[in-house]
Amino acid sequence: MKIAYDEALPITARHDDIAAAIRDHQVVVVAGETGSGKTTQLPKIAYELGRRSIAHTQPRRIAARSVAKRIADECDVELGAEVGYAVRFDDRTSADTAIRLVTDGLLLAEVHGDRRLERYDTIIIDEAHERSLSIDFLLGYLKQLLPRRPDLKVVITSATIDVERFAEMFDAPVIEVSGRTYPVEIRYRPLAESDAGDMLDGIADAIAELPRDGDILVFLSGEREIRDAAEFLAGKKLPRTEILPLYGRLAAGDQQKIFSDHPGRRIVLATNVAETSLTVPGIRFVIDPGFARVSRFSQRLKVQRLPIEPISQASAAQRAGRCGRVADGICIRLYAEEDFEGRPEFTDPEIQRTNLASVLLQMASLDLGAIKDFPFLDPPDSRAVTDGLNLLYELGALGTHQSGAQRLTAIGRSMATLPTDPRLGRMLLAADRLGCLADVLVIVSAMSIQDPRERPLDHQQAADEKHKRFVEPDSDFLSWLTLWKYIREQRDNLSSSAFRRMCRDEYLHYLRIREWHDVHSQLRRTAKDLKLKPGNPGADPDLVHQALLTGLLSHVGLRDLDGREFLGARQAKFMIFPGSGLAKKPPRVVMVGELVETSRLWGRTAAKIHPEWVEDVGEHLVNRSYSEPHWSRKRGAVMARERVLLYGIPIIVDRLVQYGRVD
Ligand code: CDP
Ligand code: MG
């Protein structure tokens, strides 16, 4: 393999220091601005030192592929020979592969079959500042492993954010690679309104304001936003301008286009992949609307969501920096300077944004040991850990219930493969088994978004009138299905502008409906990837509710005989939210999608259920007690009265059962 370095890359100036540090230390931290050459050059330095089995991790598949290709090109070898990559469903490596690009998730999965990571002599954890769960798990795992693998070398790279944390964790030297960057002028051009249409106009105005002679990088929050913007800009017929989308799910060939030479001007519409993972060459200008999709646990909905949020100051700086690499640049931010000043400095690590139950589930499935012993960079709060363990036990994912002993059940193992919130994942698995997955996919996606039915204060009555059609008397979950069907029909029959108008007239929030669709198609795709069978909608509602109940056992309530208040799990008292179709005539036993605490505790999205379902689905949770054993001549057996409690709720009382069998 031919190893040569580009003198123009900032990292080349520190080549000898880095090589020496790797030789003398087990762990080295390399920090430097994006584009300084860390990702492409570090594995070559390790190779030069005689390392022949290097794992080089990337947060994203798209980066693993393109970095492997780039290094292979630089070293003048075939991709898949000495330099290769392996990501889920796609392995381009061979026996000769010395530099192996992998996603950090994949390396973590390899721990399972290779506890001491024996197949590697070197591990480069790239982009550690991203602080995804996978990265935090890997860092913790390596921390434990390193004393037992003295021959293993680790290089951690990071943008210049919070570098000392990594150095302290491993007692490692830090080598800073000073990027040679050009000044970037920041211009603030806040949008008049914050809707999607205005954003597109804002982008068009920004393009018009910029000089015509340089490539532009526009940051958008997702694939859908990119497609919308591409269509919108195509309509503008900008002369000698090529528009290129860039996102993770794009076909590999299309991703590669950003590295090709081109005449005229290029506008790249990219997700966060272009923020640090991928360096789009030749960018002179950046347009930054200031948003990104962030996976976050919603305390209110108690589910993991993917809301679009304002980015942190550090992210904004990274984005701006993308246009100062070859010459002076201009970055137009589509928000106000005061807005920027008010933003958080850094994006919080994923472990702080994730439901602890899913963290625990993943740790258990990866066999990482008890959470309390794991050397986390930021250990989670112990209270949250207990809650998480309880929830996993409730969902049937953990077989034992002693904190620390995380024995995963078969269900738990399947749940860990689903990228959804554990409660929702549990529902999907049950639905698959019960043959009602198509319906439950719609409902579960609805539970991950905000209710698209709007009730503006000054038009409540009109809105309720419009929404009445969708109400199913015994189940708000079924109302979701009715609404979904209606929306699908309308969407198929109306032009897109007529559909938007319909939404407005009928008090439906267009963007949330779109979000609902997006979440649904994504979940459906994932379900299919995992060999679940969505089938067709229209299953028996009882089955749908039983599937939902598997994820909602601690959201069951029993109504006072003569009141409206429900006794919930662990003595909580709640009422059904006034907007619910069940509020007027509440049934005796319900399950609710969420429990929301405001002036009092409210159960939102409710459905009537049968106590026997609870007994059945919650078999591992219920307590049974017996009283008044007596001889029944009629039955010829000793009979007793049975009482079934779920989290202290007497789901069944006074059921006559044969005592002999119980005893
Ligand atoms: O990792 P870091 O951000 O420090 O830099 P890098 O990704 O190693 O990029 C170093 C240089 O290689 C940049 O100028 C990139 O534009 C270039 N590069 C490229 O042209 N094609 C690739 N597939 C990857 C990097
Ligand atoms: Mg990099």
Automatic annotation (TrEMBL):
- Domain (Helicase ATP-binding) ranges: 19-179
- Enzyme Commission number(s) from the entry: 3.6.4.13
Alphabetically sorted, this entry's keywords are: ATP-binding, Helicase, Hydrolase, Nucleotide-binding
The parts of the chain that form a coiled coil are none
Q: What range(s) does the Helicase C-terminal domain occupy?
A: 202-367
GO molecular function, one example? ATP binding
Under which name does UniProt file this protein? ATP-dependent RNA helicase HrpA
Q: Which organism is it from?
A: Aeromicrobium ginsengisoli
The coding gene here is: hrpA
Question: What part of the full protein is here?
Answer: 1 to 663 of 1199
